[in-house]
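ZP: hey, is the NAP complex queued? I don't see it on the tracker
AM: it wasn't, my bad. submitting now with these inputs:
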Amino acid sequence: METIGFIGLGIMGRPMALNLLKAGYPLVVHNRSQGAVKELVNAGATAADNPAAVAKQVDILITMLPDTPDVDQVLLGSGQAIKNLRPGTLVIDMSTVSPAIARRVASAAREVGADALDAPVSGGDVGAQEGTLSIMVGGSKEAFERALPIFKVLGKNITLVGEAGAGQVAKAANQVIVGVTIQAVAEALTLAKRNGVDPAMVHQALMGGFAQSKILEIHGQRMLDNNHKPGFKSRLHRKDLSIALEAAREVGLPLPCTGMVRELFSALVGQEQGDADHSALVKILENLSSPNN
Ligand code: NAP
């Protein structure tokens, strides 16, 4: 089995790395804070002090980092991971970042005789733990086929979408639908509540019709329960909508609903609710309509 390097052991990366270990892959790990590193080492992984040290000893290098500047720093900047790859290594960035950096990583990898895939995921922490993530991939068919046994450990719905950056474009599209739909659910349930109709009954009534969705079911329920423990943090969803808006701006495409929802996430972050679940969008609406809610 190929040796895998894994950098970024947070909410998503830690369980994904554990699943790879359980599947029998030799694993070299690195993370900024050391808690998850110790857990992985206890489970059989080897620790490396920095990204370059990981890169030097693996066949496949996976990153699962928060944002575009983090991937830039670890792979291309002072982390120097790509410069230290052995020829023939495959880099798989599974973070949600801009399509532009996915293309830059692919081109830097080619320069050192390596290959790269962008492979962001959907399915949250539960999908990461259960190995049921949806994985959206950009890159060559050969690299995709090499990575497929690894993807099958981590996920279920695995799609080669297109060339480098295409996986990140698919993920941005996913986040547009999720964000705008959360706002629609927030508006629908608040409409019911402010008209004196029990929003829980409206939620139940809508679950059988055309408005039915996973987001109505799960995020709608969180709104009814006033439970906004993440889940997926609002500030990360704001980041993802900014990626979508930037990709749209580059081609002169307006995304009016996405822009509005991004600004509502900014309001949540401004109210120090950036770590609240994205279903907390409903709080902004409630505050707009009545300060006593
Ligand atoms: P997270 O919990 O913040 O984890 C990120 C990890 O990366 C942290 O352990 C962090 O270390 C580490 N890190 C950051 N910069 C580093 C560096 N320079 N060198 C080494 N390690 C570094 O984030 P997450 O929720 O796992 O999300 C990771 C990515 O997946 C994001 O792009 C996110 O948008 C995407 N995603 C998340 C979800 C979800 O439900 N959470 C779902 C789908 C996709 P520290 O411990 O020191 O902070």
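AM: back. The pocket of NAP is lined by residues 7-13, 30-33, 64-66, 70, 73-74, 95-96, 121-122, 124-125, 232, 236 (CB under 6 Å).
ZP: great, adding it to the tracker
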